[in-house]
Amino acid sequence: MRPPSEIIRANKKYSSEVFKFSSSLICLVNFMGTIINLGYLMLKIATILIFSLYSALALSNNTQELNWKSLLDPELSDWEAFLSYKHQINYNGAIPKDHNGNNLEPIGLLDSPNDYGIYVVLEGDTPILKVSGEIYGGLTTKKSYRNYQFRLKYKWGRKVYPPREKLLKDSGILYHAIGEHGKDYWRTWKVSQEFQIMLGHVGDYWNQGNSAIDVRAYIPEHIMNPIADESQQFISVGSGQDISGFVLRKENFEEPEGEWNEIELVCFEGKSLHIVNGKVVMVLKNSRTVDDRGMITPLREGQIQLQSEAAEIFYKDIFVRKINELPAKYRHLF
User: Cα torsion for 210, 216, 220, 224, to the nearest 10°?
Assistant: First the structure.
């Protein structure tokens, strides 16, 4: 048997080792707890950062969307309506006359467009603009715009009127519209550039009045029209140019008749783009007017007009927003 003194010393040594081990274990536990707490804190910080970044991106997107201004309400408060004549087959560009051979006056600006088949109905909460098309004319924004994006959705109605009863349904967006009504062939619209809306031809270009512009297009030959294509050089068309003021859009991207189509017009410092259902169908630049003496004046801003042109048409989701530069994804086209 070991002497009691040795047993006591052994117990003290054992107790000391146990204490050291326990202390080390406690330190380890505390260290692990610190690591866990630190990890939790870092996870919390990362979560907050991710949420903040997401919120910032969402706010940026919302702000970008908020930059779009709606131009359609039940009162048509952003528009004025003007109608000219009920044109007939074989119209020749002259002022229409009555049965006695006297010049007819255009109907003019309307106090109540509803009386002439131009009005807004609600589809749920969405305002829908109906334009009967029976009389030539349309709507003109009360404000002028420069450097902007303009977009809307349209679909065709069923009705057509003279002189287009046997022709394609027709309408259009006129941009950079200036001066008085009635300066075009049909004695109806303002001097402007046209983004055509015609069945099978959405995105075509027409000049109105004495406007001119340059378009990336294949050159015309004999009875063939210029055809827009961004692979081609710019050619000059319109008033005072060798090529008349019509260019066929690049390709047909329209939805079937009776379905909604979305079109967008981009305008920046005399450049413009005609976009149909997300596809660029024409690239244009150097918008201008040319007077009888050949004097050129830049045409970079003006009102926007929606045509009434012998075919029933519906519009919705009409928006505009100002831009400070040409959108990056389109710059290579110029």
Answer: -90
Q: Is the pLDDT of residue 321 over 70?
A: yes
Residues 160 and 285 occupy one common structural domain: yes
Contact 283, 217 (CB under 8 A): no
Contact between residue 126 and residue 260 where contact means Cβ atoms under 8 Å apart: no
Q: Is 114 helix (H, G, I), strand (E, B) or coil?
A: helix
Tokens coding 165 = 């009863």
Token code pair at residue 56: 């910032």
Structural domain of residue 51, as residue ranges?
A: 1-66
pLDDT in tens, 177-186: 999 999 999 9
Mean pLDDT value across the chain = 88
- Over residues 30-48, the pLDDT tens digits come to 656 665 565 555 545 444 4
Buried/exposed 78-98: b ≥16 CB within 10 Å, e otherwise: bbebbbbbebeeeeeeeebee
Domain CATH number, residue 297? 2.60.120.560
